[in-house]
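Structure tokens please, single chain.
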Amino acid sequence: MTSTTTESKYRTLSFWLDSLVESGADDLVPRVALSGDAHADVVIIGAGLTGLWTAYYLNQRTPSLKIVVLEKHIAGFGASGRNGGWCSALFPSSTAALERRHGREAALAMRRAMIETVDEVRRVATLESIDCDFKRGGTVAFARDRVQWLAAQAEVAEAESYGVDRLELWDAERSPLGLGASYDPACARLQPAKLVRGLAALLERRGVIIYERSEVLSFGARRVQTAAGSVNGTSVIVATEGYGAPGAATDRAILPLYSLMIATEPLPEALWQEIGIEHGQTFTDHRHLLIYGQRTADNRFAFGGRGARYHWGSSIRSDYDRDPRVFEHLRRSLVGLFPQTANTAITHSWGGPLGVPRDWHAAVNYDPNTGIGRAGGYVGDGLSTTNLAGRTLADLVTGTNSELTRLPWVGHQSPRWEPEPWRFIGSNLGLAAMTVADTEEGITGRSSLAARLMAPLVGH
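Here you go.
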């Protein structure tokens, strides 16, 4: 495969990766593949942010550890190089859901850890000179009608009742659009491909071995098998998130749910002032079928959302990354929020699967008897949660008893997803229910019954 062919193959995965090639910052040419058998202290499957953050903190703690990372494609190929660029304190299970399952103090500890993680990512990026366009501006969640305004008020009131998250309620005068907004200061905008690729380059300079184009065929206690050879290690960390869903070893443990995105051409400063989104701010609204966006460092909209269906058997294919129907839905949604973008060109469109556990509860696990560890189930909230996972796995692998290893997501076991056809039917009915909920609220002006029925199933 020539450099030009490789560049074309990987740069089209997302605007983020394409911009690296366009700027000359990274040619995306794969690193050397594994050839023959090898040994390591820690073997990590997957060169996304979970795997690389784990390698980073292990290397920081014990530089003498031999760490090998195995990646099927290139570092940042998956969700780590395609996501919305929100470094947020969001966790897929709500505080209330965490409290019901683990108790109040454990839920609050989880919330504090997530908020602190936003600053930890900034700290490391600054310390290690990883220029990832990190700018903390918070998240604005617009309330565009009466039902959404009530939802914003309820969200802020719930946060106040727990006393950890510092949400604010903005009225119409302060909000760029709608009746008002809820505002969460614990979020930063960043360029995710710059972060994951920068982290991979840093680790390689520090002696961590990253084999790319090295697909893992199977793994077990202290051993990972690829087509080109095996790697034996004291610990094996599985960090594949949604892309691990079709594997035999992870069957029905995780569901790959597709999320798609678009990016616009750069907009002039005068238009941004009219729109009212500042650098560093991310945004959404209080609809049920999730949307998310940011103002990029080069003044584009990067905007995404749900709407793509689940595919039978948890299958993952590259053509699922692009769905013209969903892209058009995203374009209309962006224009609906900001009519000023009606004639703005869409320059990029892309997507990919994220990992959803059956109870929408992310988890970190490590079994010292087998040496197998794993983290994931972020449901799209992984850009910062991966950092917390990496720090936690580093503690677990080294046998360190810490505040992180006592967090309630450590050791959590989600139930398995139902076999087909129930998984296919249920997942796509859930997607339809969120669409119905938004339509229902638009017609009735009241909180959706469909959304209330679905809430326990989506981590609320």
